[in-house]
Specification:
By secondary structure, the protein is of the alpha+beta class. The protein is built from seven helices and 16 strands. InterPro entries: Aminotrans_IV, Aminotransferase-like, BCAT-like_C, BCAT-like_N, Class-IV_PLP-Dep_Aminotrnsfr.
Length: 279
């Protein structure tokens, strides 16, 4: 963590006083939800969208709490102001409890992590792993499957691992959204099967604005060779990450259409001021 302060359930406190009960069975069982928000050069990116998704994730797993979106947005700004940090990743961690008053929400700052520049120019290697997340549309603390898959990817010198469902379809990465391309058509797994990523939403908006066709459909692992390319998005990066290799299959090159989309999205991110309005 970075900074001198965190916010615990609405109260600004010194970081050394950020404690949690070891007897909290809900935390031990992963009964909680979280968000990671990008702060770069004093701009909070898509804060309202992240806070809204945090609350929706809680609803999906039946986590009842007393926190209000508008108040959480105020607390984000307070934390940034008190810590005096201009660039960081801000984590919001909501942990359930049997008693409503024992539900806790932590907001704290972490050092920003950015993919290497080499990934953007040369593309990433990824592996596939058969796994389906419980509550795929919620960002929950039930992360053991994702942790083990990501660890396997790292041990294989890969950037991420892509999940494959019981029908052989690729859904998403452990911490990324996944897309394929064929000329100027972008294919995305069905929204009901993946976490509705905020970066995913903005990316598809930019794609449509730049005359790309967007189709949501299953992406079978066995059909990867039929596409011109693939790419990833993540909330901690303002850029598209091209995929160069999936398991043993190599894409020949990063297509010009993918480079065009990447440039368009980077330009959108640069000019959006941290806010998104589909209108």
């Amino acid at each position: 963590m970075v900074g001198k302060f965190i916010i615990k359930s609405g109260e600004l406190i010194p970081i050394e006083k950020a404690t949690m009960s070891l007897g909290n069975i809900e935390y031990a069982y992963g009964f909680g939800v979280y968000e990671t928000i990008k702060l770069q050069n004093d701009i909070i990116y898509f804060a309202k969208d992240h806070v809204e998704r945090l609350i929706k994730s809680a609803e999906q797993i039946g986590l009842v709490h007393r926190f209000i979106a508008s108040k959480l947005l105020e607390e984000l700004n307070l934390l940034i102001s008190k810590n005096g940090i201009s660039s960081a990743n801000i984590k919001m961690l909501l942990i359930g409890a049997e008693d409503l008053q024992d539900v806790e929400l932590f907001i704290f700052m972490l050092n920003p992590l950015y993919p290497s520049k080499k990934l953007y120019s040369e593309g990433a290697s990824v592996i596939t792993i058969e796994y389906e997340r419980l509550f795929p549309k919620a960002k929950t603390l039930n992360m053991l499957g994702s942790y083990l898959a990501f660890k396997k990817a790292k041990n294989s010198n890969c950037y991420d691992a892509l999940f494959v469902d019981k029908n052989g379809n690729i859904t998403e990465g452990t911490r990324t959204n996944f897309f394929t391309m064929k000329e100027k058509t972008i294919f995305s797994p069905p929204e009901e099967k993946v976490l509705g990523g905020i970066t995913r939403k903005t990316l598809l908006y930019v794609a449509r604005k730049n005359n790309f066709k967007v189709i949501e459909r299953e992406i079978p692992r066995k059909d990867i060779a039929k596409y011109d390319g693939a790419f990833l998005t993540t909330s901690i990066s303002s850029k598209i990450i091209p995929v160069r290799k999936i398991d043993d299959f190599d894409f020949k090159e990063i297509s010009l259409d993918l480079k065009l989309l990447s440039d368009s999205y980077s330009q959108f991110f640069k000019n959006c001021g941290g806010k998104f309005d589909e209108k």
